Amino acid sequence: AQGQLKEDKPYYVTTPIFYVNASPHVGHLYSMLVADVIKRWEVLKGKRVYLSTGTDEHGMKVQQAAELQDMHPKLLCDTNSETFRDLAKKANITNDYFIRTTDPEHRDAVRYFWARLRDSGYIYESKHEGWYCVSDETFYPESMVAKDVSPVDGKVIMVSMETGNTVEWLEERNYHFRLTAFRDRLLQFYHDNPNWVVPRNRFVEVIDWVQNHLEDLSISRPASRLSWGIPVPDDPSQTIYVWVDALVNYLTTAGYPVWRPGSEHTQGWPADVHVVGKDIVRFHCVYWPALLMAVDLPLPRQVLSHGHWLMSKKKMSKSRGNVVNPFFALSRWGVDILRYFLMHGSAITDDADYNNELIIEKYKKLQGGLGNLLNRVTRPKDWSVREAVKFMTQKHPSPLLPIVETYKNEVEQAMKIVFENMDTLNPNVALREIMEIAYNTNKFLTDAAPWDKVKEGNIVAVHQMVYHVAESLRIVGILLQPFIPEKAAELLDRLGVAANRRSLIDAKIYADTEYGTPTIDLGSGRYSSLFPPLGSEE
Ligand code: ME8
Questions:
Q1: pTM of the model
Q2: Nearest CA to ligand 1 atom 4
Q3: Do 167 and 152 meet the contact criterion of CB atoms below 8 Å apart?
Q4: Non-local CB neighbours of 476 within 8 Å, separated by 6+ positions
Q5: What's the rounded Cα separation, in Å, for the pair 450 and 452?
Q6: Ligand 1 atom closest to Cα of 275?
Q7: ipTM over 0.95
């Protein structure tokens, strides 16, 4: 039955839902992009895949932003939510859902979830005192706050040691979730699922937190303080904590709570991957599984946590104001160039600096390593890719020349690395390896020098070389689709690969024997290239 379940369930990947207190920046785009690359990869396998993204609209942070702008919070949400939706569209993110926590279905799902939590017996009411951080929407334990000096007026303030954001002392009555009761179950679950959080170093932090810092979780705020949110069912004097509200979005999108018993799997839950920034790992990897355990729902299968984009070594953040406007970046560089730049760095495992010079540098490598390569094999009058494909696949080919054999093995080895890294949620390593195939192919072409074989009249050698280079390009084109969908499509058009031969089954050497006649005009000269000159920028 378990096997059955797995096949029926669509693959479900999520992004965080973003606070609407300000406009999106490149960091938010990055989370969407990583999730989109994962989705597109699974689609290439032929799976049914759902990607959800959206906006987190309740809570103190949004309430205060609206007050500051003298706006009704709903109006602020409507305007800013639309900007995130627009960003997803402009960046070619293939999200199937865009959830807003102010949607009525979501409110119903959260209220239902709350009621199940209450039924579970893990909620109790008590006085809460502690340091609350509005910017991070969380309480911090005493051990995690420190004194600092306000840059605004030089006064002593208290800040979170983790994020540096200001905290304030609160004393109020609210509902608590008995998180500490889940300590052993969580630790057992982590132990049984060693790849549940990737990369591993983030998982180590999660385990440490559960072992050493676990406290019960305050899950409501007095409505007198927080009015912009979902009221606690049966107790409107309390508003549901924004993080409980927000996490449930992943269930709402999957159709919760109208699952018929036994049909949960048809709706996508449990999620296959939650993509999150490292700043919200604790919420997704400690609070969320415990809440799900309390109401007896299956847990997400994996959490992929990524690092932060920095500007001049500081985290890009709305509160700090050091952000790159993703709309400007998209229109300056083009969608695929920005997608390539963001995915090619190491921002999953480490923090990465956003830098225009580096974008140009990476673009030049694409021009030299891939654009020129494509022209080198498709343009010459001395041979034809189509003829080489036909010759190699329809006639009985002679044994491969040693140089071709070696090269073919290298490409297959690299492809293996690409597949392994995609399947273990390392898309940036995979992308770099795809590019290695292209760089190695350039080298092969130079070393093998088919133009010399043309002069010698050694037609077998020419066909072998051209065909294997074309095969690499075809495969590189297929593998690049999740990352740079438009450029990859153009590459495959230039090679004449049919639209229905671009999935992962076709990403094998010799899998396709029908291509080679370009379906678009290849043009001539340096401006007709997959990666044309940038113009004045270069
Ligand atoms: O935390 N670099 O929303 P948020 C990379 N609403 N990614 C970044 C980034 C940066 N500089 N800045 C933000 C929230 N992000 C909650 C989430 S989910 C149920 C609720 C990305 O608007 C990263 O994924 O503060 C981070 O986790 C997320 O945006 C936080 O967005």
A1: 0.96
A2: 18
A3: no
A4: 370, 434, 437, 438, 441, 491
A5: 5
A6: 24
A7: yes
